[in-house]
Amino acid sequence: MKDFVKVYDDEIQVNSYLKAKDLQMPEQSILNKYSDKIKGSVLLDVGIGTGRTTYHLSKIANKYTGIDISQGMINGANANFKNQNIDFQVGDARNMSIFKDNTFDVIFFSFNGLDHVKTDERILFFNEVKRICKNDALLVFSTHNILNIPLLMRLKISFHPLIFYDYFFKYLKLKFYNLRVNWSNKKVVKINDGVHNFGFNLTYIDPTYQKELLESYSFREVCCFGYPNGNEINTSDLLKTTDPWIYFSCKVN
Prior knowledge:
Blueprint: H1 2-9, H2 11-17, H3 25-33, H4 35-38, E1 42-46, H5 54-60, E2 63-68, H6 71-80, E3 87-90, E4 104-109, H7 122-132, E5 133-145, H8 149-153, H9 161-177, E6 188-191, H10 195-198, E7 202-205, H11 207-216, E8 220-226, E9 232-233, H12 235-238, E10 245-252
Parallel strand pairs: 1-2, 1-4, 2-3, 4-5, 5-7
Antiparallel strand pairs: 5-10, 6-7, 8-9, 8-10
């Protein structure tokens, strides 16, 4: 965990995140679908960065709290929303003991923040969600799609020499950093997909398997939304979608 926290604490990264203010299409689809649930809620926004989702969720919820594991990002969020009396805290998704049981109506964990967590520790987040959420609360999160890896790893073609050079160089680096990784016939895998200059590995998971896990954890009414178009994906299409990541929404018992 320390490696990626160090990356996100870096001033250059914080400054780059300060520019982000727009929702992704699946996030907007989810806000549209659950507008009645989110409006007037007690909402926890996990992995906020410098507050990209804060611009939107804090205006809808009755009480908004944003957390991030990076102090640098929280400092950026405080600077972004100076004098707006918004609650930002440093917090770890695996251990949210700073919050009492049965506190939240809605939890958002956007932009694949969960994929930084070790594969065998993802369950810690879901256990914490069930503890700090009220009954029938809404959970929203996104995660990388393992079915997208073959597309990610292939060499892109361009007839522009400089662009093709960039594609080829990244292709070689992807192959090098994942030389010993085998994702064939796997449900979950950690790969280095080049994010933040190949700074760390991230979890990629089969979306159908993730849906089954949620249901086995007693989450209900699981829905899936593709990125980037934000369309809701039915169960049969989930088996073959190659969208780079998938947003999940579900109800918490």
